[in-house]
Protein: Tryptophan 7-halogenase
Organism: Jejubacter calystegiae
Amino acid sequence: MLNLRSPAPQRIVVLGGGTAGWFAAIALRRLFSPKVDIQVIESSSIGIVGVGEGGLLNFINALQRYQIDIDEFVRETGAAWKWGFSYEGWRTGGEDDRFYHLFASQETPVSRWSERGFYPCLSAMIGQNIPLESYLAASPLIKANTPQDQASALLKANGGDIVPSFHFDSYKLATYLKKVALSRGVMHLDTVVEEVVFDQQGHARMLRCADNRTIDVDFLIDASGLSRKVLGKSMGGKWHSFSDYLLMDSAIPFYMPHPHENPMLVTRAITMDAGWMWQIPLIDRVGAGYVFSSKHISEQQAIAEIEQRLGYAITPHKTLRFDPGCFEEVWVGNVMALGLSSGFVEPLEATSIGQMLEQLYSFERVLVHSQGIISDKTIREFNQANFQSWLGIRDFLRMHYDNTRRDTPLWQAVSESPYPESYRALRECWQERTPRLLDVESYAINGWRGIFHAINWMFVAAPLGVVPSRAGQMDLLALPAEKRQQALNFAAERHQEINR
Ligand SMILES: Cc1cc2nc3c(=O)[nH]c(=O)nc-3n(C[C@H](O)[C@H](O)[C@H](O)COP(=O)(O)OP(=O)(O)OC[C@H]3O[C@@H](n4cnc5c(N)ncnc54)[C@H](O)[C@@H]3O)c2cc1C
């Protein structure tokens, strides 16, 4: 059992002042009485990773939960709307090869009409190879590169269509969250933590810093980024690598000017010879990067390929290396790893901050519902749920690589890489019927909420052909004739709109 009530903790330390660390500090400050110190320790000499500029469907909800003023957030972080992703070159590699994964709301008539677990309108569209985004009012605005104020107007008028999120500057975000946290009483120290001292039960009790300072700790959030200072380096946590299934292990970030008149309303994921390039449009610039497999291309070759593709020289930031995966247990004793220190796969679908916020939300739920008296069983179940959530991310990302590209050694290797068993089992069914909640809800267990709905899976699975049109047609056979016709009429209207 972990007792955070009696005697009350004196100090909770968050090691790390990146997005994860500051969000955690804000969350904890809200939960604990002012008698408990919440202290963030970060090192300006180490700095933050400086990437991670796109949120997911849970981002605005998190800002609201932490009572962060959205207008102020937008002003201070250079934020621009994010309504989903544009996948370019993932099938043929051709100029016109593009599909969208948009953050479709689950509150539209299309997603609310469910029969035996499937969505007749979506099944009808898949059955006739109609792009799924075409039922969303957001879609033409994205394609027309609509300015931000007009996008805001659509959200106000038709807010139920899409769940908006943001692109933002990661440095400005950390600075802004720090300002919010300090204004609410979070304490801050700029130093390097060199050693974590544990008691006989394996609980972290003290931090030794480079300036000879020592800091007592009752609970420790390890948000130390890719350095994984506590759970990784000091505690030897068990790492679970996904590298058999996800081949990307390196990234070269850089900035670029907007290629279009206005910031695009989606993150672009553009395939390259040995991976793919992200382009995240903020108000003033685009944050970009080449994610690649180091077995298939060198850093120099990657930079040359970017420059050839863009037609101008870039100033690359430091190359980041990672082993895609996560710790099997992120909460051990009185230490919990959060953000990059707990796991990272790759930026595809921008899952990292989204997963971090889900973990933080579930952690808060445990603290509140247990009133600080936390059983080993609860911690075990928390870890199981967190791990399961990562497996969902692994499978979702693996599906993106289940594509038809074979034209370079990397895409050849991708096509030969194995499926995780859980993904293989789902994929087998999806040859006969469309994905449904039943298939993906087990990625969110023990009270966790999950990031991606079955509809998100469909937005990617259908255009890639992982779910063939036949699956949509088969779904409809289960419907009485009148309902089937209603769904087919809906698809026919979308078809007409596209070809108008
Ligand atoms: C290539 C790449 C692209 C990404 N793209 C996306 C994306 O599009 N969307 C998304 O959601 N996420 C993305 N991410 C992940 C995202 O960057 C992180 O989830 C997010 O920035 C949170 O980082 P963090 O706070 O965990 O770590 P960091 O920002 O690295 O912060 C770590 C902190 O720990 C401190 N620290 C470390 N060691 C010590 C020590 N010994 N003593 C004192 N302080 C220490 C550092 O100073 C720093 O303050 C991407 C990541 C990578 C690598």
